[in-house]
Design a protein that fits this description.
The chain has 16 helices and five strands. The protein is mainly alpha-helical and 420 residues long. The chain is globular, with a radius of gyration of 32 Å. The two termini are 37 Å apart. It is a multi-pass membrane protein.
Length: 420
């Protein structure tokens, strides 16, 4: 390739004419390059049609307000769209109260057809030049905004509102109750409820992540890696109710008089001269016993996710660290852990939120004892006895406890982005 030392550009419309001169020869080489024009697929914003965007936004606002108003009327006991005590046409009866399998299938088909129709309309308008870009954005985001507003924001607001109301034994609203519901929830078990919840939120994600990470490192690239990981991941595939029943017999399985103990934990205690006992009755022994079950379940998830992250660590980084003298624990601590830090944060956050929402294990193994209770189980129990005020207070407290976990997740993600 010739050594080209001087370059002169002369713009002309959409082209640039470059004159390239070789110092070793007297000849001149002229080359004309064409600047790429604007891609044909780029959509131009039509002028004068912004009113369409405002109209679509107003329609979405009216739909959200109407759905929230209907939900509020239903909450206060007012029947608007459908009243089961009155007679309606066959279509409304099928739509709001399907009784047969055929009617349920028809309602499902109608819902799918409505979704397909809306999406087809949006996709049809994408290539229409007269439709503003803002209208297309609202068209795509509109269904999501409606779903989030009606399915998430409004129930959250209603739950907070209910947490300050008083209800009778039949679930009827008796008026304002202040912070009495929160005081009642916090007083259950003399504070054991909050202590148990905090223990679940902090101990389960820490130990499940540590066990999963250690196991992922130990079995990484071993001969029987798939089989070893399958054994650890198996508890994750078991339902929490089934796992609770299994571990309930591990902790306490009383045998008839004169026969050997069949519970594993009590069998070990008996072998060392102790007497069998129910491990799920006393506080805080019962809480730690149930936390072990949740760790056993979540360690498989942590192991699988972290193992994939470890395998994604670039080999050149590891080789460079080894050349610099890093090996063993130092290599793991200085290279592997910082590289998989975003995955670690995701695993810890996911397991913490799952632990905060777990009520299956406590409900099956805890025997509904106040000393074993956590907020999620208290929420479920209050809902079953038609006490939305106490249930709402439990839900709000769950949200308050999960906020630090979310803040931790966001801060760690920002640190990871800064490192990159």
């Amino acid at each position: 390739m010739q050594d080209l030392s001087r370059r002169q550009a002369v713009p002309h419309d959409r082209t640039f004419r470059y004159r390239l001169t070789d110092e070793r020869s007297e000849g001149e080489l002229t080359q004309t390059l064409t600047r790429p024009t604007e891609p044909a697929h780029v959509r131009k914003e039509p002028a004068g049609n912004n009113w369409i965007t405002w109209l679509v936004g107003a329609i979405l606002g009216v739909i959200i307000v109407a759905l929230v108003w209907i939900g509020w009327k239903a909450f206060t006991g007012t029947k608007i769209l459908f009243d089961s005590t009155k007679s309606h046409g066959w279509f409304l009866n099928m739509l709001f109260n399907p009784t047969s399998a055929v009617q349920k299938i028809i309602v499902m088909v109608l819902a799918i057809a409505l979704f397909v129709g809306v999406m087809a309309l949006i996709l049809f308008l994408v290539d229409r030049e007269r439709v503003p870009n803002g209208t297309l954005v609202l068209g795509f985001l509109g269904p999501v905004i409606v779903a989030v507003s009606v399915g998430l924001v409004w129930p959250a607001v209603k739950t907070i509102f209910q947490s300050f109301r008083k209800f009778d034994q039949f679930g009827r609203d008796l008026g304002w109750n202040g912070f009495h519901n929160y005081g009642y929830i916090l007083s259950i078990g003399k504070g054991d409820l909050i202590i148990n919840t905090v223990l679940w939120v902090f101990l389960v994600p820490i130990f499940a992540t540590v066990f999963g990470l250690v196991y992922a490192v130990l079995v990484d690239r071993t001969r029987f890696e798939a089989a070893a990981k399958a054994l650890i991941f198996l508890p994750t595939a078991i339902s929490m109710v089934a796992a609770s029943i299994i571990w309930r017999y591990v902790y306490y399985a009383p045998a008839p008089s004169g026969q050997p103990q069949v519970g594993l934990a009590n069998a070990v205690v008996t072998a060392f001269g102790g007497s069998p006992s129910n491990w799920t009755l006393k506080f805080p022994q019962a809480t730690f016993a149930m936390i072990v079950v949740m760790i056993w379940i979540q360690a498989g998830f942590a192991m699988t996710t972290l193992s994939a992250a470890i395998k994604a660590v670039p080999d050149d980084i590891i080789e460079a660290a080894r050349i610099d003298g890093a090996s063993g624990m130092r290599l793991f601590r200085s290279v592997t852990v910082p590289t998989i830090r975003p995955t670690l944060v995701v695993v810890i956050t996911t397991v913490a939120i799952a632990s905060l929402k777990t009520f299956d294990i406590v409900n099956v193994m805890g025997g509904n004892l106040p000393n074993n209770d956590i907020l999620a189980n208290a929420f479920y129990r209050q809902i079953t006895v038609s006490q939305p005020g106490f249930a709402g207070a439990s839900a709000v407290l769950i949200f308050v406890i999960v906020l630090p976990v979310i803040v931790f997740n966001v801060r760690q993600m920002k640190k990871s982005e800064g490192i990159r």
